[in-house]
User: Which sequence fits this backbone?
């Protein structure tokens, strides 16, 4: 079940709810909502601070049950850390911890005053949007491939009301739209590759288009792509029994003559490496290699939900990379849709091989005003930036600045890497126009440089989300990144 969210002009001491949520800083500093509760309860909160039960450490949680003097059954006191250093990232973290704590209580609804907490350089719209997205994120459960469970005996959290008036309504509306996009991306990416294959992704896109009047979907199959000359994409696809699809979604929210924004996402539904086979341990994580596809589809969902007044196309090459008697091989020379020939030196550098044809198709078919691609493209990007920042590459400083700003605004952050032509010689080949790998140095950048060869003349940026699209470990889930960044970037354009 997904959480329901609402806003209301509520008062902490008189609101009737199973649980009211307020924040306290370290060193006994109360937020104004906490101070009001403290007064109404004759000092119940201060008392727990004095006893050391409540320490105010960031993300800590304490429940007071049925304190006298309040209409609420419980108070959830959430630690905000030191007031001096309180910032946007801390606010987001605290909102998540508060929601997790609510989820552990036997209650169905709660009222939160965290949206009243002052966050430096952020307005109430941002606070509400961030609180709602954090709550939705924290309560996300992957259930698709478990045996259906019986209805739980204890009540489950189903709705949260946040303190806020009319001025915050836009934040709630945006958050609900974006949260659906994030969930769409996470659900798709979390599915195993025996379910989420290229045809499945295409089917999800078709069904989404069917639910929205302003959206159309067109899926190219391998025969159509053969006819058009997708020689690079089809080479990657050849080893798999699951035929490739090129999924094209079109949203007409702007004028008929407005050039569209274009999003392109890497949709490798499973990456074995192909003939350049990956090692066994950790290979299961390569089900997330369609994280870019999930991300751009999620951003598309968010944009459509917000009814943004712009035109948007979303192009997803969906392909499985498998070893087989018919697989492409190292030393093969492919002719891409652009006409450029590519020497395959490693079949595990397959993402760029499907993206180059998708990018060419997008540019030729839609003449977009800008293209942004998202891809779990390189392990090298994870080495460079870790799991916190996506890698951003673009030759267009203004576009890079827009995307970095959208990342900062949503805390779905990216960090720019250079895309200088100095790196291009690493892709030189003796047998084709370009090689598909550039050696061990600067692997994330040379992958970007490869894509740059296919986007000449386009206003284009590339997001390498190899580190950010999912959480590490056996139980690591898809994060839904970069849906918040992309959705914010599109919002900022209108
Ligand atoms: N999907 C992988 C990149 C990847 C690896 C993402 C680990 C997340 C975690 C991509 O297709 C790949 O295999 N890239 C190779 C490129 C190399 C052969 C030049 C890599 O990063 O090792
Ligand atoms: Mn690979
Ligand atoms: Zn891959």
Assistant:
């Amino acid at each position: 079940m997904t959480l329901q969210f609402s806003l209301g002009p509520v008062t902490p001491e008189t609101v009737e709810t199973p649980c009211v949520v307020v924040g306290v800083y370290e060193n006994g500093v109360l937020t104004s909502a906490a101070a009001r509760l403290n007064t109404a309860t004759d000092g119940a909160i201060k008392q727990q601070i004095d006893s050391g039960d409540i320490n105010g450490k960031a993300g800590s949680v304490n429940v007071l049950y049925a304190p006298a003097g309040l209409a609420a059954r419980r108070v959830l006191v959430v630690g905000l850390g030191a007031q001096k250093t309180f910032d946007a990232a801390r606010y987001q973290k605290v909102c998540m911890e508060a929601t997790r704590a609510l989820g552990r209580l036997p209650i169905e609804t709660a009222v939160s005053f965290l949206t009243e907490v002052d966050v430096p350089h952020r307005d109430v719209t941002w606070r509400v949007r961030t609180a709602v997205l954090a709550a939705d994120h924290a309560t996300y459960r992957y259930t698709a491939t478990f045996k259906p469970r019986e209805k739980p005996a204890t009540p489950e959290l189903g709705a949260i009301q946040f303190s806020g008036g009319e001025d915050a309504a836009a934040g709630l509306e945006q958050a609900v739209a974006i949260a659906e996009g994030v969930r769409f991306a996470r659900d798709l990416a979390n599915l195993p590759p025996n379910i989420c294959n290229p045809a499945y992704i295409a089917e999800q896109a078709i069904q989404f288009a069917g639910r929205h009047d302003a959206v159309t979907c067109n899926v190219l199959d391998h025969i159509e792509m053969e006819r058009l000359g997708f020689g690079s994409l089809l080479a990657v696809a050849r080893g798999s029994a699951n035929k490739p699809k090129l999924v094209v979604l079109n949203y007409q929210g702007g004028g008929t003559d407005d050039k569209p924004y274009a999003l392109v996402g890497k949709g490798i539904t499973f990456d074995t490496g192909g003939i350049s086979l990956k090692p066994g341990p950790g290979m299961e994580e390569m089900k997330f290699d369609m994280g870019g596809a999930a991300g751009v589809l999620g951003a598309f969902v968010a944009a459509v939900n917000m009814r943004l007044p712009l035109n948007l196309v979303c192009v997803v090459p969906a392909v499985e990379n498998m070893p087989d008697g018919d697989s492409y091989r190292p030393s093969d020379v492919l002719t891409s849709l652009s006409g450029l020939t590519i020497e395959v030196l490693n079949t595990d550098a397959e993402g760029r091989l499907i993206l180059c044809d998708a990018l060419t198709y997008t540019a030729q078919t839609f003449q977009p005003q800008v293209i942004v691609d998202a891809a779990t493209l390189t392990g090298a990007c994870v080495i460079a930036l870790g799991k916190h920042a996506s890698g951003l590459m673009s030759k267009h400083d203004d576009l890079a600045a827009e995307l970095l700003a959208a990342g900062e605004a949503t805390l779905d952050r990216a960090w720019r890497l250079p895309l200088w032509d100095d790196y291009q010689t690493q892709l030189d080949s003796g047998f084709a126009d370009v090689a598909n790998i550039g050696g061990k140095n600067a692997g994330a950048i040379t992958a970007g440089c490869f894509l740059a060869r296919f986007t000449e003349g386009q206003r284009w940026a590339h997001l390498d989300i190899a580190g950010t699209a999912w959480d590490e470990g056996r139980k690591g889930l898809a994060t839904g990144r970069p849906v918040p960044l992309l959705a914010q970037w599109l919002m900022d354009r209108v």
Notes: Residues 271, 273, 348, 350 surround manganese (II) ion (ligand 2) (CB under 6 Å). The chain has 14 helices and 18 strands. The mean pLDDT is 98.
